[in-house]
Amino acid sequence: MSLNLAAEKQVAIAAVRRACVLTSSVFNKLVKNETVTKDDKSPVTVGDYSAQAVVNTILSRTFPDDPIVGEEDATDLRQESGFALRDRIIQLANECITGELVPGEKEEWGLGPNQSQSVDELLDAIDRGNYDGGSTGRMWTLDPIDGTKGFLRGEQYAVCLALIINARVELGVIGCPNLPVNGANPSGPRGCIFYAVRGQGAFQVPLADPFTTTPTRVSIPVLPGDQLNLLESVEKAHAKLSFNELVARELGVTRAPTRMDSQAKYCALARGDGGVYLRIPTGTGYKEKIWDHAPGSVLVEEAGGIITDSRGQPLNFGLGRTLGENYGVIGAGKDVHPRVLAAVQKVQRESPEEA
Ligand SMILES: Nc1ncnc2c1ncn2[C@@H]1O[C@H](COP(=O)(O)O)[C@@H](O)[C@H]1OP(=O)(O)O
Ligand SMILES: [Mg+2]
Ligand SMILES: [Mg+2]
Ligand SMILES: [Mg+2]
């Protein structure tokens, strides 16, 4: 049975759209000291923090009882060394929150010219993302900028939001400011939002006008073998790309892989640009985070695809902030997925040094 979730969907699309407008405008203004390196060596920018502040502010107003598992936290911004960064983040978040309402938005969501927030309110909003997750109840999960490295390069990144209920992803929304609206026309207009409610299909709308445009339903087409290619990370530290080459050979895939940062890969898969999402761990013990896969997985499933790990098991969103021990991620259309899983397992058996 499909849950209705019409209100959640509307709010989530509006929140993601605002955050996309914010992050694309930040990109054009970003200066060097506005990016810092986190303890895990990954970058975080004023864009990540301010986008999390905006989305969490909206969620707190609309669904005050729902906890949020968000990637960022405000600890560094509460220390004196973070004050310059903090002030910039507050300014950006408030500019975004106080922007004029567009069709589909409501002032009671905490948006519009009268809704400016104090420093403490916005830092607390960021920290509302510190929920530990778990297997029961409702929770949102947010990646305010997924693919920060892609964002910094001016390439693909995504604003990613999902609603998880009793460990099942029920709603996913992904905003891709730099993704071409039509995958077959890469130099055409850019900026799309993808969304899916479980049981209701997967859709794409333009970022510029998500509420008054008729949504386009997306689904994974049956692609002939010679048209399959792999969608994979840009960053070698994130996934074992040499393994992907062996899998491609095993599958008889001759097309070059498409390298793309962020969950934009799941969006590309969902609308048939590509065919296989493949992410094999690099052996560093990194655990995948729920916000990096929750919206993408429901989107692909609603587009007619299958998402599993390399054992063929579904991803478990009920273990906390991470997906637990990392067995990688395989996504593909229903017809292709069994072949990819078999190829992955064959390469694991035959090239254990790669697996
Ligand atoms: N060592 C790592 N291994 C795997 N994924 C990582 C690692 N470090 C960061 N990530 C996250 O991987 C995702 C990017 O994946 P991809 O390589 O598919 O673009 C991002 O969510 C990124 O976080 P972030 O959201 O901070 O950018
Ligand atoms: Mg990050
Ligand atoms: Mg991410
Ligand atoms: Mg991120």
Automatic annotation (TrEMBL):
Catalytic reaction(s) noted: 3'-phosphoadenylyl sulfate + H2O = adenosine 5'-phosphosulfate + phosphate; adenosine 2',5'-bisphosphate + H2O = AMP + phosphate; adenosine 3',5'-bisphosphate + H2O = AMP + phosphate
BP-aspect Gene Ontology terms: sulfate assimilation
Superkingdom field: Eukaryota
PROSITE patterns noted in UniProt: IMP_1 (PS00629)
Coiled coil: none
Key word Hydrolase present: yes
Family: Belongs to the inositol monophosphatase superfamily.
Enzyme class: hydrolase
E.C. number: 3.1.3.7
UniProt keyword list: Hydrolase, Magnesium, Metal-binding
Signal peptide: none
The protein's name: 3'(2'),5'-bisphosphate nucleotidase
Residues holding Mg(2+): 71, 143, 145-146, 292
Species assigned in the record: Ceriporiopsis subvermispora (strain B)
InterPro entries: DPNP, Inositol_monoP_metal-BS, Inositol_monoP_superfamily, Inositol_monophosphatase-like
PANTHER family, alphabetized: 3'(2'),5'-BISPHOSPHATE NUCLEOTIDASE, PHOSPHATASE
Molecular function terms, GO-annotated: 3'(2'),5'-bisphosphate nucleotidase activity; metal ion binding
Cofactors that this protein relies on: Mg(2+)
